[in-house]
Amino acid sequence: xxxxxxxxxxxxxxxxxxxxxxxxxxxxxxxxxxxxxxxxxxxxxxxxxxxxxxxxxxxxxxxxxxxxxxxxxxxxxxxxxxxxxxxxxxxxxxxxxxxxxxxxxxxxxxxxxxxxxxxxxxxxxxxxxxxxxxxxxxxxxxxxxxxxxxxxxxxxxxxxxxxxxxxxxxxxxxxxxxxxxxxxxxxxxxxxxxxxxxxxxxxxxxxxxxxxxxxxxxxxxxxxxxxxxxxxxxxxxxxxxxxxxxxxxxxxxxxxxxxxxxxxxxxxxxxxxxxxxx
Length: 278
Ligand SMILES: [Zn+2]
Known about the structure:
Layout: E1 2-5, H1 30-43, E2 49-52, H2 54-59, H3 61-69, E3 73-76, H4 89-107, E4 113-114, H5 128-134, E5 139-140, E6 161-162, E7 169-170, E8 175-178, E9 181-184, H6 189-193, H7 196-210, E10 217-218, H8 235-242, H9 245-258, H10 264-267, H11 269-276
Parallel strand pairs: 1-2, 1-10, 2-3, 4-5, 5-7
Antiparallel strand pairs: 6-7, 8-9
Bound molecules: zinc ion.
């Protein structure tokens, strides 16, 4: 189980509408929403990996400490949610270095995991895993092996694999394969949009047919139907962001109850041992 810890005004889809300079003017809701998630995880005995923005960790250090104190795995989601597709190698390196230092300072734990904002590892930035290795990371969950208008490498391996550099374990977001096409089944708007039974079918299929664990992700803002509405959004963005927020928390609770969820380092300890020995 994974959570991408960012606030509702920081999502990539809002990039054209909300500048980073104006973030400070928005009501912050990530702390209370993350606390609700921590409660839910406690209730269902779930341990998760929290991919957290450096920007958020700097603003809410006590929240980050609560994540770690409850036994969860803290990892990096970069500094301020810039998609890797918009960065040079040098800019990417600076972004993740700043996030790593802040997360480590605040939590007093080493940060070895990373997830790119909006799964923005693509064929155009194939240097990204090498930069992670240079900076002492061990794992990444930054690729979506699907065809999507905003992200994805449709032909990428669907499950955990060691990158060509030998030092980073990549854990793509989970897909299910149907008629020679990959469909997302690891969370996001897809999980909110379709009935829970569809997700359950897909997850069971991955567990049974592929004999693989599912990597699932959601965001604190997805369980917050009361979040302030951002005006002026185009239809697609509005639909993707706000659809079915009210039923999300109940759906997540069912998901936590129906399966056994653990952190990435725990579920993939064998694969990680192969990486960290190098
Ligand atoms: Zn994100």
